[in-house]
Each structure stands twice: as structure tokens, then as C-alpha cells.
């Protein structure tokens, strides 16, 4: 990991983020982030682990400037997120990306590259490189409407790394991928880490964190419970049991999850 003057370089700084939302049917607001604070260091893979609804996507949208926090601040590359010049150094894959269905993969990535200020031969070569990188070389001229969910996830990852960003932010990047696709994403993230890129990705699956991350920030009900290193994260998973629950009341489930911090609970 690189440092300046012997100090760790923080690429992403999130300080005391708070955010509330108000339902259309109610005048009362509900706070979904309660003072979230953490750091992402240069050249590391930082995981963001928590159950669905914990506040992961809300935090990511605030980091990207897509929504505003009620209070708190975000700094990227020592610039406030309001400084739009930092956006060119960030790659982003949302949890549910939207694609123009009638564009081919080549056309889609050309559009994305031009939006990032790329063009000409450099863009053409880079498109071919990232299509091969995500395993879609045989589908460059195929319209996106015919892609499977896993193929669309690969296409989304291709656009996220197209402009070779210094910070990559991924929201549930393994969603919809088969085992081969999951391995491809892991290999890509390790390669980006080797090239000193910083990666911040969210998931509710503990094994993804164990396989990839230097550190992981655990969020639960809008609160950063703690940030742990790989060794401690593995110990969290030791002896865990996967439980499938049917026909139980929400109060009972809440009592169980208050006792054990477990993010793989399946509810039916």
C-alpha cells in the first residue's frame, strides 16, 4: 500500500453521514443513516457488509453525489464530493444498472467512453480490451436486450472500468453472476488492486468479503458497527450457521438478529 511521508493515504473519507427519507404518505421522516464514518485507503479493497436495507446503497449514492446528506461530509482524493472534477477518477456500477436495450455492447461502451471524455483510436482499443476482460468478446455486436442478467452485470462492470478509474465503487457486483462470472469479477478486482487502484464494494454475502477484502466496514440499520481486518472478518464467520425461517413473526426475527450479527439469514 502506498503512503506519503510514511502516512497512509485515504482516497475516500466519509464523516458523520446522516440521511432521512420521508414517505409520500407521511409527513414524518425516518433516518436511515446515523452518523456513518469510515475511510478507504489507497490501493486496498474495502468491503461494505450489511443486510438488505442497512443503508449501503444510500451511502454509496451520497458518496457519488447522487443524493445529498442531511449532514456530514464526503471527501474523495482530498476534494469535497461537490467538486465535479473528481468524478472522472471514479468508476461506478449500481446494484440495478439500466442499459439502452437497442444498443449493442460496442455502441453502449462507445457512448459511455465519450461521456467520460474518451474518443478516437484510444477509445476503440480500450473497448476491445474491457470486453475481453469481462468475457464478452463474442457478444460485442449483440444488442443488450438479448443479454442475460449475468451478461448485463458483466457489461455494467465493463463500463465501470472503461476509463481506468483510480477509485471503483461497486454496489452488489456479484448479483446475477454464475460461478464463472464470480471468478472473473474476483480476478479483475485483484488485478486492479495490484495496479494500486482503490475498490469499495458493498455486499450482504460474507464469503465475498472474506475472499477479497483488506478490510470490511459492517453496517447495520444505518450504523457502522465496526471496521475490521481480514483476520477478524474470518473469525466472525467461523462457526456460523445458515438458518431458513418460515412462518415467524417480524418481532421474533428481530430478537434473533439482535442476539447474533449474521448477514446471511434467509427469510421466506
Description:
β13 (244-245), α8 (250-259) and β14 (266-267) form a beta-alpha-beta unit. The protein folds into two domains: 3-237, Rossmann fold (3-Layer(aba) Sandwich), CATH 3.40.50; 242-268, no CATH class. It has helices spanning 56-63, 105-115, 120-133, 149-161, 179-194, 206-212, 230-237, 250-259, and strands spanning 3-4, 7-8, 10-22, 29-41, 45-49, 71-76, 79-80, 90-93, 167-171, 198-203, 215-220, 223-229, 244-245, 266-267. With 268 residues, the chain is of the alpha/beta class. 32% of the residues lie in helices and 28% in strands. α3 packs across α4. The chain has eight helices and 14 strands. It has a six-stranded mixed beta sheet, with helices on both faces. The chain has a four-stranded antiparallel beta sheet with strand order 4-3-6-7, covered by helices on one side. Strands 1-2 form a two-stranded antiparallel sheet.
The CATH topology assignment of the largest domain is Rossmann fold
CATH architecture of the largest domain: 3-Layer(aba) Sandwich
Question: CATH superfamily membership of the largest domain, which one?
Answer: P-loop containing nucleotide triphosphate hydrolases
Count of domains: 2
Q: Structural class from helices and strands?
A: alpha/beta
Low-confidence stretches: 258-268
**Beginning-to-end CA distance, first to last residue:** 43 Å
Integer-rounded radius of gyration: 19 Å
**Major sheet description:** 6 strands, mixed
- Counting DSSP E segments of at least 2 residues, the number of strands comes to 14
Task: State the order of secondary-structure elements, H for helix, E for strand.
Answer: EEEEEHEEEHHHEHEHEEHEHE
**Helix tally?**
8
| Percent range of helical residues | 25-40%
What order do the strands of the largest sheet run in, or round the barrel if closed? 8-9-10-5-11-12
- Would you tell me the overall average pLDDT? 85
Which CATH C-level class of the largest domain is it? Alpha Beta
Strand fraction: 25-35%
Amino acid at each position: 500500500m502506498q503512503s506519503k511521508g510514511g502516512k497512509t493515504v485515504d482516497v475516500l473519507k466519509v464523516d458523520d453521514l446522516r440521511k432521512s427519507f420521508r414517505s409520500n404518505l407521511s409527513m414524518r421522516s425516518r433516518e436511515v443513516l446515523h452518523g456513518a464514518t469510515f475511510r478507504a485507503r489507497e490501493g486496498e479493497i474495502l468491503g461494505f457488509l450489511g443486510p438488505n436495507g442497512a443503508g449501503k446503497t444510500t451511502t454509496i449514492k451520497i458518496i457519488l453525489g447522487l443524493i445529498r446528506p442531511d449532514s456530514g461530509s464526503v471527501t474523495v482524493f482530498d476534494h469535497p464530493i461537490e467538486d465535479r472534477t473528481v468524478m472522472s477518477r471514479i468508476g461506478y456500477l449500481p446494484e440495478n444498472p439500466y442499459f439502452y436495450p437497442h444498443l449493442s455492447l460496442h455502441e453502449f461502451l462507445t457512448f459511455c467512453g465519450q461521456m467520460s471524455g474518451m474518443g478516437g483510436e484510444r477509445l476503440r482499443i480500450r473497448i476491445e480490451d474491457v470486453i475481453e476482460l469481462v468475457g464478452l468478446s463474442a457478444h460485442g455486436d449483440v444488442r443488450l436486450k438479448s443479454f442475460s442478467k449475468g451478461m448485463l452485470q458483466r457489461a455494467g462492470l465493463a463500463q465501470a472500468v472503461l476509463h481506468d478509474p483510480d477509485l471503483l465503487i461497486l454496489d452488489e457486483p456479484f448479483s446475477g453472476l454464475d460461478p464463472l462470472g464470480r471468478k472473473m469479477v474476483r480476478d479483475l478486482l485483484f488485478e486492479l488492486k495490484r495496479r494500486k487502484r482503490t475498490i469499495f464494494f458493498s455486499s450482504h454475502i460474507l464469503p465475498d468479503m472474506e475472499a477479497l477484502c483488506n478490510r470490511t466496514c459492517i453496517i447495520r440499520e444505518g450504523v457502522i458497527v465496526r471496521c475490521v481486518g481480514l483476520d477478524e472478518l474470518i473469525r466472525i464467520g467461523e462457526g456460523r450457521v445458515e438458518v431458513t425461517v418460515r412462518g415467524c413473526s417480524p418481532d421474533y426475527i428481530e430478537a434473533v438478529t439482535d442476539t447474533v450479527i449474521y448477514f446471511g439469514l434467509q427469510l421466506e
